[in-house]
Amino acid sequence: MYSVLSFTEKKFQRKNITPKGQNHAYDYWQNESPDWYRSFLPVSKSGLIDKDELEKARLDMPEHLFEQEFECSFEVEEDSFILIPLRYIEELKNINFAETIIGEVIANDPSAGGDECATYVLKNLHIKESKFIYEKDTMKVAGELMVLSARHNINNFAIDNIGVGKGICDRLGELRKNVMEIKSAESATNKNQFYNRRTEMWWYVMKLIMDKALPYPQDKELRRQLGSVKYKVVSSNGQVALEPKADTKKRLGRSPDRADAYIYGVWATQFMNPRNQIFKPYNYKTGKVEIKPVRYI
Known about the structure:
CATH topology of the largest domain: Nucleotidyltransferase, domain 5
Order of helices and strands: EEHHHHHEEEHEHEHHEEHH
CATH class of the largest domain: Alpha Beta
Number of domains: 2
């Protein structure tokens, strides 16, 4: 909500509101004083946005976000801003999963400051093995990942390269592994819709879950973490950003490292096999696959 003051002879104050739950702006809206004039302008009535563009937004966005941003709904509660509601994850139990995205990858979210170092082995998006250790020594973590590589005959890795992760990526590269270095803070493919790459990756997985295009994850803690991360709208064009990881950690009592490692693996899988071109793996900018093994030394 922001105010506009007029200093002309007929003084007035105008308040422009974009709803965000039933907060102080909602209280202003509820004020039925005869001294105030209220105007309610949902996009479906104003006609300010082209119908095709509006329908695309409806398909691309969660229903509650569309209702808030385009239809001026005050009914969206704070919990509605969980990016991947648990009920959608639980619905995956009831599907016969079809393997349309093919690829094998070992995904790792390195730890720092006592957090969990989480690793998932994914084959065609199925979790084949998981490993969780509390270790900051990059060489020890690289060694654990090499054991998993040998056990599953997988040479593709997706690893967060921030901080201690950079040393792990470097060592695996020296050992001639294909390493996709995940840079969560870098710009997204679609800069207008996503604040950074981390938001884009999470959104991609959210869409797969809503489309029932992922197998049900059996790891209960992983499901809890996936269903706990919130997002917010950060610009008037609908750009979204995930909450800081520290905020999720404070609410959960632990860092969502399992969820991030899983997200990295699902995101990376689309780039691991040219066959995926048939199924148009995710690229908001071009709509085409971009196969880049990313790093081979």
